[in-house]
TrEMBL record, chains A, B:
This is Proline--tRNA ligase. One of its GO terms (biological process) is prolyl-tRNA aminoacylation. Its main location: cytoplasm. Keywords: Aminoacyl-tRNA synthetase, ATP-binding, Cytoplasm, Ligase, Nucleotide-binding, Protein biosynthesis. Homodimer. It comes from Giesbergeria anulus.
Length: 581, 581
């Protein structure tokens, strides 16, 4: 491609609403152009990246035996009503009515439609397993779209759905996809982790997220540097403490802690380690009647160490909290604790609550908690002496760096990531809801065992940039760069030899199948280099008159700080070496 | 691809709602699957065809210097309000509101968005000409979606938009696209015509439709078998008659024609040629005030020969009718003619009307028309004698087969076609409405001269089938077949040599880059052949045990009535010859 035939449009300044670096750089590099909140034009430069991502995904999905189809963007509501998701899904799902008043949705995913296809087309166990996928536009009406392609409203997703005859086969299909995803992410040339994720009500370990590692990532990833263990923070287990509880050594004492509502402040005031303090989190569950009205509520008290954070996914697995819970209202808190939030604790309650204790709290002695009186905390609290031994002791917290790895291979570390892929074993959730069956080997109808597998096609470039950029702009991995090589002739209008050499090299690289851009715009060298550093083409060849007279051109990788002189006769071989082709 | 890894799903019967052969065959061949009215899943077999169409279009668009981008499916209403199309477009345009109550449209085309991009990105004449295109999902909420992919609601279109500095350059850009379209349609391997189409208010000849010829086509195409002349029926000019008007030879006579309201019936009753009769068509135009209320109406009488059809596009160019017209109401007709429709004519009016006469009527003598009395016609009517010489004489009719070709190269013929592409010079319609300017060479802002260029990507396969099918199914041209070659081993489970030979040939063809399908499903030969004839793969190789023992396999093109024996050693060479590679 020659620049004069293309559309190159770079900006010095990022738009004011671009909060993250990928959004800033994609806009400045002319890759995307905002049309509305969370809605972007993929400009020619950006579309090239998206197409390369798509091509890699498609190749590996096909290699893994998946079959591509396309399901409509606009889908009739009926199927979504079968699974109940038409009503259950929030306003993120865009609903429309056609001219005849029929309801439709703009697809946020396609479980319903693909299950409808399967129940009609996959009639016999002989046709299984089958994995159907599409690379298609999706829409989610995010309340607050932001971060450019990271959390847009209209986006492209690769969504695949596997159909199997039984759990064993479904798990094998899942593993085929998990392996394909590793090949896909390897080919992208990004640093990533496949992390265990929560599999919700289904249980088991068949849920993995593919996280591109980036300091700016929204997700916390837990991993063990000595092993393969990796999980997202929701999923990562905090092992039961191995130490036993020390004996009580302090008397129960009430100490004034004026205006100190946070454990950290209390610890500083009292000169004790934060690990000695305990925070109280008050939840509530509601019992509803058939009309959906609250008949009865139950208040729960969760105790966690002051330095730990509650993990909602784990809390949602506590017996009694697993049907949904909410934070208690101030009125409920006052009713049960006789005190407003900030100084709460498990001692001296007004009304009984259900107590759930994190494993680490259960092994504390002489701990500190609120006294249920404003500006007052209690120190020297001890299980068995000051309150009964805890009955419900569970893992309620997020792991922290330094915790033991669940696989026993060392200590956990935490880094940030951007979720770009997800493989998930669905079981029969959708096939049962939609009565999707096939004839099993025994001649009887059986429900499909399903899995679903997503990759955020248009999110991936943003994640790649969050991971790979510097102050000058984007640094693309070769595999998904808009162009692999850019040729920069210096003032070719003044030096016919430069123009000629650039055109000749361009033709030569094209003939070798190298994705090359010739910048024939005639820009000043500084502006030209700045453009290509912003756009992030990984390999640059600069052709100047002085160099040509010496028989050299200059090669510079986007990550190099200086250029290397290469004999004009060696350029192709050098480039091929750099590209690994 | 092996059939066992793919999704093949053929049906014996077409669905009841499939009115046209392409809809029937695409459904039966498992290429599309209806999800709702006018909304289809592109099943794996159909998607392969769509992808091949896309690839050819993309290659030729790129070759012609166009640059690909993608504009969102969901577009904010604001831009559509700038051109007034948000209100002007009917219910075909799907409108939605997001969770914040903002209006959006699902794109039916993208003139507004691309013009918005141009006015921001193309700032100088130095960046022009530029042609931006996308291959993207569109939605039109047709009142009565039907004919499968021929008139669906959700479909994929390639839409390109050119931006030029002046008319000369815009016309050159138009010609580049018109030439690219010829290459594209040549590559599809279909019989087509590029026909001149009406260019609406803009005038000039820069509007061509690309019509795939098919007996079932919705459009009438006029062409000259001796030349390149081709136009759609709306556009094709009926040349002025060369004969002069004969002298009057009959007296004006009123003849009873009880219950004969159609010219054809009158001609039969009176034993005269239909060409001697004249039909009266009564139109009306309205003058509106600022409130949009009708202030005054004018009634028009159009006279056409009894054997001719009125052409509404031509009528809309008559001075005075060019701002819109309607058919007159019965009340208006009775008021002016003193008679209800069926026996109308230009003589003895109650109130004056504006008269417009087709060129062929102007040269008639002794003609027949209604007498403005029920059950009565007038014969022997003559211009100048019975009524004044006509003042407004124009081409008002559709041409008919046998008319002289406008290029003087012989007589016109008419055939049917399916419009699959359109190239159109837009001028400054959108750039003026959206104030889209660039800095011209003289330093002043100038409006972009635009063109737009569409190809119905998902309509093309349907048109190809309307043109290429027989009683057994589809017959794909090589370029867009879902698979180019199918290998059909006969009972490979019983004959290991057959299975082995089929696998070996499959591997060999794959290695040659031939898009080959190996049917390894183990179906009975009859069912297997029926499937592939229905699906329409153009080249079939049958591998049987008996043949192998003789050292041959059988080759059959989908259009062949019998198979040809080919030595196993010659198969590749034979196939390459057939494929022209």
């Amino acid at each position: 491609m020659k620049a004069s035939q293309f559309l190159i449009s770079t900006l010095k300044e990022a738009p004011a609403d671009a909060e993250v670096v990928s959004h800033q750089l994609m806009t400045r590099a002319g890759m995307i152009k905002k049309l509305g909140a969370g809605i972007y034009n993929y400009m020619p430069m950006g579309l090239r990246v998206v197409r390369k991502v798509e091509a890699i995904v498609r190749e590996e999905m096909n290699r893994a035996g998946a079959v591509e189809l396309t399901m409509p963007v606009v889908q009739p509501a009926e199927l979504w009503q079968e699974t109940g998701r038409f009503d259950k899904m929030g306003p993120e799902m865009m609903r429309i009515r056609d001219r005849h008043g029929r309801d439709f949705v703009i697809q946020p995913t396609s479980e319903e439609v693909v299950t409808d296809i399967a129940r009609q087309e996959l009639r016999s166990y002989k046709q299984l397993p089958k994995n159907l996928y599409q690379i298609q536009t999706k829409f989610r009406d995010e309340r607050r779209p932001r971060f450019g392609l990271m959390r847009g409203r209209e986006f492209v997703m690769k969504d695949a759905y596997s159909f199997d005859r039984d759990q064993t086969s479904a798990k094998a299909s899942y593993q085929v996809m998990a392996a394909a995803y590793r090949r896909i992410f390897d080919r992208f040339g990004l640093t990533y982790r496949a992390v265990a994720a929560d599999s919700g009500a289904i249980g088991g370990d068949l849920s993995e997220e593919f996280q591109v590692i980036a300091a700016t990532g929204e997700d916390a990833i837990v991993y063990c540097p000595n092993s393969d263990y990796a999980a997202n923070i929701e999923k990562a287990e905090a092992l039961a403490p191995t130490q036993s509880r020390p004996a009580a050594s302090q008397p129960l004492t009430q100490v004034p802690t004026p205006s100190k509502t946070a454990c950290a402040d209390v610890a500083i005031l009292l000169g004790v380690p934060l690990q000695q303090t305990v925070k109280s989190i008050v939840l509530a569950t509601d019992q509803l009647n058939e009309q959906g009205e609250i008949v009865k509520s139950q208040v729960w008290l969760l105790l966690l160490r002051g330095d730990h954070e509650m993990n909602e996914i784990k809390v949602a697995k506590v017996p009694g909290l697993d049907q949904g819970f909410r934070f208690a209202s101030t009125a409920e808190i006052v009713e049960h604790f006789g005190c407003e939030p900030g100084y709460l604790g498990p001692l001296t309650l007004q009304k009984p609550v259900k107590l759930v204790v994190d494993r680490e709290v259960a092994v504390l002695a002489d701990w500190i908690c609120g006294a249920n009186v404003v500006d007052l905390h209690t120190t020297g609290v001890n299980w068995g002496r000051d309150l009964p031994e805890p009955e419900l002791v569970m893992d309620l917290r997020n792991v922290v760096a330094g915790d033991k790895s669940p696989d026993g291979q060392g200590e956990l570390a935490i880094e940030r990531g951007i979720e770009v892929g997800h493989v998930f074993y669905l079981g029969t959730k959708y096939s049962k809801a939609m009565n999707a069956t096939f004839l099993a080997e025994d001649g009887k109808p059986a429900f499909f065992e399903m899995g679903c597998y997503g990759i955020g096609i248009t999110r991936l470039p943003a994640a790649a940039i969050e991971q790979n950029h510097d102050e000058r702009g984007i640094i693309w991995p070769d595999a998904i760069a808009p162009f692999t090589v850019v040729l920069c002739p210096i003032t070719p209008d003044r030096f016919p030899a430069v123009k000629e050499a650039a055109e000749a090299l361009y033709a030569q690289l094209l003939a070798e199948g190298i994705d090359v851009m010739l910048d024939d715009r005639g820009e000043r060298p500084g502006a030209m280099f700045a453009d290509w550093e912003l756009i992030g083409v990984p390999h640059r060849i600069t052709i100047g008159d002085r160099g040509l007279k010496e028989g050299v051109v200059e090669y510079q990788h986007r990550r190099d700080t200086t250029a290397t002189k290469i004999a004009t006769t060696d350029v192709l071989a050098h480039l091929k070496g750099q590209l690994g082709v």
